[in-house]
# Entry
Amino acid sequence: MRELWRQYEHVIAPLEPWLGWVFAASVGMSVLGLVMVPVVAIAIPEDYFVRPIRPVPVTSEHPAWRWMMYIVRNSVASLLIGLGLVLILLPGNGLLLILVA
# Structure
């Protein structure tokens, strides 16, 4: 184990002044996540997930533009949900990111 530490000591040494701030930010974000997830979950209307699908409003936008925005929006949401699932296993705000998506 000491041999492993010696291999990476030159990488970690310049970062030592920042370790306190990184630790504080990590703890702060974890606490913020623990507070915000219930707040956001409570703010969701009771029928949010069982509402009938809203009809797409008739607009003057070109259908190709609507499809492109639909694909981009769902791709970003899928990416955020995937990141949230990964972040659940890592320290941080994984649950909050899933709710944002």
In short: The longest helix spans residues 16-43. The mean pLDDT is 82. The chain has one domain: 2-100. Residues 2-100 form one domain.
